[in-house]
Design a protein that fits this description.
single chain, about 220 residues, alpha/beta, eight-stranded parallel beta sheet, two-stranded antiparallel sheet, globular, binds 4-methyl-5-hydroxyethylthiazole phosphate, binds magnesium ion
Length: about 220
C-alpha cells in the first residue's frame, strides 16, 4: 500500500500484520503489580502481544519499567507495544507504539520508527476510522465500545453497531475494539467484526488471577 504524505512516498507492507484475538494492556493502578509482573502473568496465560500503558509515571519511570517488561517479553518472543510514547518505543526498540488522536500523528511516528514497527491508532467514530485506514498504521482501534472506568475522560461509547459499521467500511484492515470488554461480551464484539479485543480491567482487576483470566479468554 502506498501513502503519499506530501513529503515523501511510503511503500509499506503493513496489511500482513495479524492480531491475536485477545490484546491485553497493562495498568499499574488497577493492579499494583509492575508492568513486568503483569507481562509475565499475561504471557503465562498465553498472550502474544501486550501493550504497556501508563498515564501517570514520569517518562523516566515508564522507560525503566518498560525496559524490564520488554526483557521478559523478548525471552518468550512476545511483542510489546508502548502506549503514547514514540520516544520510549524507539529508545527501547520495542515492537511498536499505540497512538491516540492527540498524540504524535502516525505518519510522523512511522518516519521515526521505520517500516517494521507496529503502529496502532485509536479512533472514536466511523468517520475517524474510515480516515485512519489512509494512514501508515498497522491496525486501528475503535472505542470505547462499552462504558469503561479505566480511561479518564473517555469519548462517548460507540456500541457494537459502530464496530460492525467500521468493519464494513474498512474491508479486512486489522481492527481492535476497546472499552468495557469482558469475558461476558467479547465474543459478540469479535462476531461484530473486530479482529481483536483490547482488555484492561477485566484481565487485571484480580491480581492473583491474571494468568487464569487470560487463559479463560483464549480458550472460551
Ligand atoms: N481507550 C478506549 S477505552 C480504554 C482505552 C484505553 C480503556 C479500556 O479499559 P477497560 O478496562 O478494558 O474498559
Ligand atoms: Mg495516547
Amino acid at each position: 500500500m502506498t501513502w503519499d504524505l506530501g513529503l515523501e512516498t511510503w511503500d509499506l507492507e503493513l496489511m500482513n500484520f495479524i492480531l491475536p484475538k485477545i490484546y491485553p494492556i497493562t495498568d499499574t493502578r488497577i493492579t499494583k503489580l509492575t508492568h513486568a509482573r503483569q507481562v509475565q502473568e499475561l504471557i503465562e496465560g498465553g498472550a502474544t502481544i501486550i501493550q504497556l500503558r501508563d498515564k501517570h509515571a514520569s517518562p523516566k519511570d515508564f522507560y525503566e519499567s518498560a525496559e524490564e517488561a520488554l526483557k521478559i517479553a523478548r525471552k518468550q518472543k512476545v511483542k510489546i507495544i508502548i502506549n503514547d510514547r514514540v520516544d520510549i518505543a524507539l529508545a527501547l526498540q520495542a515492537d511498536g507504539v499505540h497512538l491516540g488522536q492527540d498524540d504524535l500523528p502516525p505518519e510522523h511516528a512511522r518516519k521515526i520508527l521505520g517500516d517494521e514497527a507496529i503502529i496502532g491508532f485509536s479512533t472514536h467514530s466511523l468517520e475517524q476510522a474510515a480516515r485512519a485506514v489512509e494512514l501508515p498504521i498497522s491496525y486501528l482501534a475503535v472505542g470505547p465500545v462499552f462504558t469503561t472506568r479505566t480511561k479518564e475522560n473517555p469519548d462517548e461509547t460507540v456500541g457494537i453497531e459502530v464496530v460492525k459499521r467500521v468493519r464494513e467500511a474498512i474491508g479486512d484492515f486489522p481492527l481492535v475494539a476497546i472499552g468495557g470488554i469482558t469475558s461476558e461480551n467479547f465474543q459478540k464484539v469479535l462476531e461484530a467484526g473486530a479482529s481483536s479485543v483490547a482488555i484492561i480491567s477485566d484481565l487485571l482487576s484480580d491480581a492473583k488471577n491474571i494468568k487464569y483470566k487470560m487463559q479463560k479468554f483464549l480458550h472460551k
